[in-house]
Amino acid sequence: MGNKASMQLQQEEITDIQTETGFSSNQIVRLYSRFTRLDKNNRGVLTREDFLRIPELAINPLGDRIVHSFFLESQCETVNFKQFMSVLARFRPTKSKEIKNKLNTREEKLKFAFRMYDLDCDQKISRDELLAVLHMMVGDNISEEQLNSIADRTIAEADEDGDRMISFEEFKKVMERVDVEQKMSIRFLN
Ligand code: CA
Ligand code: CA
């Protein structure tokens, strides 16, 4: 193992991933070549350091959170190609004519977005978590006072059961008016 041939993607793996994620086989092959380029020590899996070499993530203020979500998917210290693809599938644009794949439904996209905010994974977004993510997104461009008031207002608007936290159900209601399809779709292959 470890030679070039063993790193090739088998046709059945492609078909498998295609069924699960809805990517075309061309896209899978191209993303696989990107994956192997990131996989510096040729182990067939990516580590956190590998992810941090992706320039788009390195400059994204939420890069850490996005990287974190790949590891939530794998529940392990490394991410294999299949796990890599199922996270990317959440960002796959949904075309109106196609049958929606289960990974890029609105519900899955929202779950993914929710996990970005839920830093301690207790299934609730606290005021501190909201504030921390706001900090990552805006950096020092907005005063502490303004950020605090945005966090307070968001919690007050979203919180229905009065625990001062945002549950996934509450989060979904807030996002009802947001075009998630649009916001959570990334064109990878351009
Ligand atoms: Ca939390
Ligand atoms: Ca609540």
Care to describe what's here?
It is a single chain. The chain is mainly α. The chain has 2 domains: 4-89, Recoverin, domain 1, CATH 1.10.238; 102-180, EF-hand (Recoverin, domain 1). Helix content is 56%, strand content 4%. The protein is built from 11 helices and 4 strands, in the order ααβαααβααβααβαα. The radius of gyration is 18 Å and the shape is globular. One calcium ion (CA) binds at residues 118, 120, 122, 124-126, 129.
Biggest beta sheet attributes: 2 strands, antiparallel
Number of strands: 4
Summarize the amount of helix as a percent range: 55-70%
Strand order of the largest sheet: 1-2
Distinct ligands, ions and cofactors found in the model: calcium ion
- CATH fold title of the largest domain: Recoverin, domain 1
Q: Distance between the terminal alpha carbons, to the nearest Å?
A: 33 Å
* Class of secondary structure makeup: mainly alpha
How many helical elements? 11
Mind telling me which CATH architecture of the largest domain this is? Answer: Orthogonal Bundle
Share of residues in strands: under 5%
Cα shape: globular
